[in-house]
Amino acid sequence: MELLVDAGMTPLEVITAATKNGAEFFGIEDRLGTIEAGKMADLILIEGEPDEDIGNMRNVRSVILNGRLVYEKN
Prior knowledge:
The chain is an alpha+beta fold. It has one domain. It has 2 helices and 3 strands. It has helices at about 1-5, 10-25, and strands spanning about 45, 60-65, 70. The chain has a 3-stranded antiparallel β-sheet, with no helix packed on it. The radius of gyration is 13 Å and the shape is flat.
């Protein structure tokens, strides 16, 4: 992600490419890619503002998979 920002994409463009656009490419945007009612609850919670500094994507605080908390940083 950091290399894509270094190449000229904005942090938000990189995040969108990794989530929404990725789901659209694979034809699964009805289930994944964005946060909406009825979609699978697969989320990572980040400390910081990754849309301002993509390096903050390294600061994972929690991971939610299929609606269940599977990791939480102490």
